[in-house]
Request: fold
Amino acid sequence: MQPDDDGVWQPLVERAALARRRNDTEELVVSLHEILEKLRIPERWSGERALRMKNLELSVSKELGVDSMTTWLCPCLLKESELAEVSEELIEELAAAKKEEVLNTDLGSLGVIQLSVARDVSDWTMADGRFIWHGAHACLKLILEGGLDVRGRRVLELGCGLGLVGLACARAGAKAVLLTDYDNELLSACSRSIELNHLQSAVSTEKLDWQQVSSGGPLGPRFVDRFDLIIGADIIYDADHAASVFGTVRRLLQEQVAREGILITGEPEKREGVSELDRLLSLSEVSEVVSHGRHESLSWEAMLLPEVAVADNRKHRMYRFWWLSEAEQVSND
Reply:
């Protein structure tokens, strides 16, 4: 079965639909068994099983007018017969295949990174667990072009989402990468992506709640480690995000969990939270020329990045943060 070939499913779906309309249980069972067998053919490449599922669902939508085969099969579960058994098996197979869906992202010199797709994520800002935000592309461009050197460094990514930026850091030579997010489904997808890309020795995951960290809650044992760099790519949307992300970066730097932090954001007209971050920093304007400032003992820089060749080529910003030592504070004062 070729990656773009969904035609193989159409006759099978039509046959199953016809059998059900005729109340021909025996024929329906045979048809469902055939579908199940084709779904279970051993994979030739990672994600092929999930692609079969996706193509099957497309055929089901065209032929049956329902959003998924699971919806169509649910009434069959009520019957105490072989029909119920094969329907349950097929539903379980579809659910398992969905968890294995893979997005292949070509990063040029870093090669192709395979991303496991997350579903049922808990926050609308994560879309459907498939979307790579524009700021992530801007961050990747910096890494690929040498504007952000991660070689030999220990990196902690905030709000990792599907983990593309952190995985790219590992491919680019980072010594260790910790992917953090508060959504368990996303972290599970990241764990699968780590395995798909054979990066288990360099990349790991950990749950992190910005609200808890920024309000002074306990840090887990993973954050006893020292990191060279915090990265957050397009993780500030509304005002609450700005306050909690800024508070998290500030605390991790203050407690020497990391040496410096980098945030890549959109522009204020696209992200309300960026306006709030500027307010917190008393920053009036950002341009291609680096702006400097201090927030108590936290030093920061901000600059406008070149346009990124994705979507509408929108502008992005880079904020850099680091904590001043007592001697540096006295010197600067």
Observations:
- The beta strands are 102-106, 112-116, 154-158, 176-181, 203-207, 227-233, 258-265, 291-295, 298-305, 316-323.
- The mean pLDDT is 88.
- Residues 48-64 form the longest helix (17 residues).
